[in-house]
Amino acid sequence: MITYCPRCGAQLGDGVHGEWIGAAVTCVDCGMAVVDPPAMLAPGPTDDEVEYDLGEWESAERGSATAALGEADIPYRWEANRVLVVPAVAEDEVDLLLDGLDDVEEVEDDDEVDGGEEAQAAMADLFLAADRLQHDPADVDLAADAVAAATTVTACLPPYGIERAVWRRIQGLASTLVTDVEEAVDEDAVAADARALREYLRDLV
């Protein structure tokens, strides 16, 4: 049963029917369009789980936490009052991850810098290029457009509203696509790279 936003843990409202989520459901806290939720930790509780009370964190900070968990392949689930639950075996790793996010947030609060309009435009261009390239991976012009947008994305800070962990994931997927295009790997691999990037960017642009 999907009850809480997979990104920030806020209670979901209308449009949730058992394990199925309607395409129009949007989280009221973080604005995520909840269409294709990630694999979540099975309902508990059990003795093999650890809870983190993130009720005082901002929605963007909670989003950074779940994005980082996804990058680290650590399953999780949200419970009432923004309580994050993870497997006990991952406790040490999650402690370090959350402590690191605290440090990053403090730096960002001081500097308040982002990639601005350049990063936002590059992310949109990358989405469009990947969307087209997945259907025609042999097209040289489409590949060049994707490489150009990916090069800008990998050199930019994240645009406003995009968490650092999410941006790092975008940059990693973009770098993989660029490498496969430049090394002229088979078309199926390029199409798969473009599809993965397009799907990740779908709810962000």
List keywords for this structure.
mainly alpha, 205 residues, 8% strand
Overall pLDDT score: 81
Number of domains: 2
Percent of residues in helices: 40-55%
Q: Characterize the quaternary organization of these chains.
A: single chain
- The arrangement of helices and strands along the chain is EEEHEEHHHHH
Molecular shape: elongated
Query: What spatial order of strands do you see in the largest sheet?
Result: 3-5-4
**What does the radius of gyration come to?**
18 Å
How is the biggest beta sheet arranged?
3 strands, antiparallel
Plain-language structure description:
The protein is mostly helical and about 200 residues long. The protein has two domains: about 100 residues, no CATH class; about 80 residues. Helix content is about 50%, strand content about 10%. It has six helices and five strands; from the N terminus they run E-E-E-H-E-E-H-H-H-H-H. The strands form two sheets. It has a three-stranded antiparallel β-sheet with strand order 3-5-4, with no helix packed on it. The chain has a two-stranded antiparallel sheet with strand order 1-2. A hairpin with a 2-residue loop joins strand 1 and strand 2. Helix 1 runs parallel beside helix 5, helix 3 packs antiparallel against helix 4 and helix 4 packs antiparallel against helix 5. The longest helix is centred in the middle third of the chain and has 21 residues. The radius of gyration is 18 Å and the shape is elongated. About 35% of the residues are buried. About 5% of the residues have low confidence.
